[in-house]
Amino acid sequence: MRLSQMLFVTLREDPGLAEIPSHKLLLRAGYIRRIGSGIYAYLPLMWRVLQKVSQIVREEMNATGAQECLLPQLQPAELWRESGRWDTYTKAEGIMFALIDRQERELGLGPTHEEVITTLARDMIRSYRQLPLHLYQIQTKFRDEIRPRFGLMRGREFIMKDGYSFHTNEDSLKQTYQDMQQVYSNTLRRAGLAFRAVDADAGAIGGSGSQEFMVLAEAGEDQVLYTEDGKYAANVEKAVSLPTKVQSSAFTTYEKRETPQTQTIEKLCQFLKCSPTQVVKNVLYQTVYDNGMTVLVLVNIRGDQEVNEVKLINELTKQASQYGAKTILALTVPDTEAQQKWATKQLPLGYIAPDIEDSYIRSEKQLHPKFLRLVDITVIDLKNFVTGANESDYHVVGANWGEQFQLPSQVVDVRKAKPGDRAIHDPNQTLQSTRGIEVGHIFQLGTKYSKALSATYTSEQGEEVPLVMGCYGLGVSRLAQAAVEQSYDQDGIIWPVAIAPYHVIISIPNITDTKQVQAAEQLYTQLNSASIETLLDDRNERAGVKFKDADLIGIPYRIVTGRSLANGKVEVVERKTRKSQEIPLLEVVSTLKQWIDADQVEEK
Ligand code: ATP
Ligand code: MG
C-alpha cells in the first residue's frame, strides 16, 4: 500500500480524553477514531491488525475441530426470558441494548450468545451421535457498559470470538476445555504477548471451572494474585488464601468502653491500642432481588480483612430462592440517602454490633423485615474480641460468641485475598500481585442453559438428557490494544510482527530524487511479491516527518532508500531495537524474509 493513497492522518499532540498509552497511541497513529462514547471506527491499519488476530484465532480454533459460523446480533427477547436473563441484562446495571421493533416485538443486541446457540442446539442436536460439537464465531458484540473507557479495551461495540461446545458428559466437556486452554495460550503466544492463565470467578452458576487469560500490564483493570512457585494464580475476585495470623486479645473481661470518634477500624485500634485482628467488623450491604425485594445484609468479618463483593454476590444469589427470587439485581453499601428509605431510626454507623436489632428495618411490602446475617470464617474462632456496641461512640471489648453474642448460623467465605497472604497450597508461599487485562475467559457451564431452554438429546441408553455445555470468549479488539499496551516506547507503537498491519515500511527521504524513488519502487514490488507486506511512504513530506510517522505506527522494519544507495545499499532499521544495518539491494528481500520468519517462530 502507498501511504500517499491511504487515509493516513497522524496526530502530533496527545489526544485529550485518552488515559492510557495504548489508547493514546492508537488514536495518534491513526488506527482508530472515536465516533461516540465507547464507539470506535477501526481505520484501515487497525482493520489489518484485527484481521491478523482473527486469523490466528481461526487457525488455532479450527485445528481443534471447532467450526466457524455467524449468529444473529438481533436476538428475540423471548429467548432471554426463557433463560431468565432478560431482566438482569436489560434492567438496573444490565448491559444489553434493548429495542422494540415496529411490530412491538422486543429485541436485544447480542452481548453474548448462549441463548441463541442453545436454541439452535435444542432444535438440531437430537442424538449422542452428534456430540461433541463446538461452534464459534468472530463478531461485533454490543454491551452498554456503564463506564466505557480506554478505547477498545472497554467499548460498547467490540469484536469477540465466542465459542460454545456441547457434550454428553463432564469428561468430554473437560477435554474441550483443555483444548481451549491450549488454543488461548497458543494464540497469545503467537500474537507475541506476555500473559498468565488465572482461576476466575464463575459467577453464581458455580460450574466446575473457569479461567481467564490475562495480558500483563500496569493499565490492566484486573488484579491478579499469584505465587512465585508458579503453582497458583487467580483473579482477586476469585482468589483464596490463608489470612494473616490472629494476635491474641489484650482484653480478658467483657466491658463496654467509650470510644469517641472511632468510626474506622484504624482509629478504633489506635484508641484501644489493639490489633485489627481482634476486631469483629460489621459491614452493612443492601441488595435488591429480581422480584423487587430489598434485603439488608450484615457481614461480620475480621477487622483487618475486606469483603470480596464478587464472593458476596455469589452467596446472595445462592440465597435468592429464600426470598422468592432467582437472582440479584444490585448490591450496594447503603449511603445516608439509601438508609432513609428503609431505616426506622438513625443507625449507629461505625458502631454496629453483630446483634443489631431488626427493628431498624421498616415494615414494608418490598422490604425483608430481618437482616440477613452472614458471618465470615475469619471471625468464628475469635476470643475476647472487640466490636460495636450499637451506640455511637461506644464499643465493647472482651466479647465472645456464645456469651454476649450469638454466632450467626450462616458461616460464609467472603473474604478478599490480598497480597502478602499465605498461599493455601503452601503456607510458605505468599501471594504476589500484578495487574492484567482480561483478554479471554473460558468456562465450563454445565447444564444451566440447556436445562433452562430444554435443550436435550437422546443418550445411548435412549434417555432425554440435557446437553452439557462450555463457553469460551476472547476479546479480539481488546487483545489488539493490549498488545500495544505491552509494547511501545516514547516514539510510538512497537507491534509484534505476527499482528503488525505491515511487516515493512519503505521511507523515501526525498521523492524528487529519482534514484531513491526507483530503488524504493523496485523493493516495494519485490517485497510484496515475496509476501512481505509492505507500505511505501511516497508522500511529499520531509524525511523527518516520515521517520517519525514510521516509528509512531510501529511497523517492525523500516527501509530507507537514502545515502547508502550510492554503494548499492539501503538502510534497514528494526523498530524494536532501533538497530540499523546497511544491506545490499539484492539481499534485502531474502534478509527480511529470514528476519520476519524468525520473529514469528519466536512469537510461537
Ligand atoms: P469484563 O470483566 O472486562 O467486563 P467480561 O468478563 O464481562 O469482561 P466476557 O463476557 O467474559 O467479558 O467476554 C469475553 C471477552 O470479551 C473478555 O475476556 C474480553 O476480552 C472481551 N470483552 C468483554 N467486554 C468487552 C468490552 N466492553 N470491550 C472490549 N472487549 C470486551
Ligand atoms: Mg469474563
Compact description:
The chain is α+β, with helices and mostly antiparallel strands and 604 residues long. It has 14 helices and 31 strands. It starts with 20 loop residues before the first helix and ends with a helix.
Low-confidence stretches: none
Radius of gyration: 29 Å
Q: What is the β-strand count?
A: 31
CATH topology title of the largest domain: BirA Bifunctional Protein, domain 2
Shape: globular
Largest sheet: 9 strands, mixed
**CATH class (first level) name of the largest domain:** Alpha Beta
CATH homologous superfamily placement of the largest domain: Bira Bifunctional Protein, Domain 2
The assembly state of the depicted protein chains is single chain
Number of separate helices: 14
Beta content:
25-35%
User: What fraction, in percent, of the residue positions are helical?
Assistant: 25-40%
Assigned CATH architecture of the largest domain: 2-Layer Sandwich
**Overall pLDDT confidence:** 95
